[in-house]
Amino acid sequence: MKEQFKKIEEWSLYKERPLIISGPCSAESREQVLQGARELAATGRVDIFRAGVWKPRTRPNSFEGVGKEGLKWLREVKESVGLPVATEVANASHTNDALKFGVDLLWIGARTSANPFAMQEIADALNGVDVPVLVKNPINPDLNLWVGAIERIVASGITQIGAIHRGFSTIEQGQFRNQPLWLLPIELKRMMPTLPLLCDPSHIGGAREHLHHLSQKALDLNYDGLMIESHIDPDSALSDNSQQVNSEGLVKLLSSLILRDQIPGTSTNFDTLSELRAKIDLYDEQLLELLGQRMQIAQEIGEYKKGNNIAIFQSSRWEVIMEQVLQQGAQKGLSAEFIGSLFRAIHQESINHQNKVMNL
Ligand code: PEP
Ligand code: MN
After folding, report:
1. Which of 72, 152, 329, 347 would bridge 339 by S-S if both were Cys, CB 3.0 to 4.6 A apart?
2. Tens of pLDDT, residues 43-62
């Protein structure tokens, strides 16, 4: 199956690359929504105002959104501020309500796109409607689940469909709230080359300081747009407070991003070099992750040796390690010289960690 998707340039809400969607994680009050929208409109940099009214929270007893009431505030934003509005829908009743209140763009969240029943229910509610729909990646790194969610929306007859890359929840805790796993959206684009693709650096990073790096990377990979959470007073936000910026922060961020030259006709087609670099970055990330974990174990060994009064350096153990890695490295085409210096450096770092533990 090769779907033909409407290019983002042909979407009714589109003005210029990259498409910028911004607004609070959650609609909290009428004033917060309207003031937020007015501030963003005044920047002239935001195409669509976002706010979640139904919040899928991991744990109960956290703020779960204001519900339908918030749709009235979004309608006011549209009518009095003049920005198109977007919200998240997670079932048929949300979808019907959002459409009734004239929401201009719907997105489907990561916990919902992981659920084929919910996706089908939303797709059925969208039958015969013409509203742009963005499908976030499912929370778990399962490309087919993401593709399937998109296919269900395609089958509903919706023509303006896009995907949002918001990172994946995995067992390893990396530097980000969610692991970007850039290879997955790249693979999605390989399967659906004309599908518009946006990045949500807020939910990948989970903290303001990561927004620049992640947004720039998405632009370098030729993404069509960004969804960035912003709030009138980020620190006091009722959800996702550490990842939101105020309108000033948003302008600063957007102004610092470099838009690479577009090759005509290649919109969101990843070129070979970017794709290969994304792979290298991914493996580098994994290497660092593993090295960090290895040092953690070295530390535990240090504690054990300290408790049992065993010397740090055991030359026989080191010889066994070296012999093993040289042999395994050779099988992978890695030279003895490279493996030797790599593992000597790793071993030295290990000893340094253990030394620190011993001398505590
Ligand atoms: C959100 O956009 O506020 C949200 C809940 O996102 P996600 O579904 O990516 O967690
Ligand atoms: Mn959020």
Report:
1. 329
2. 999 999 999 999 988 888 88
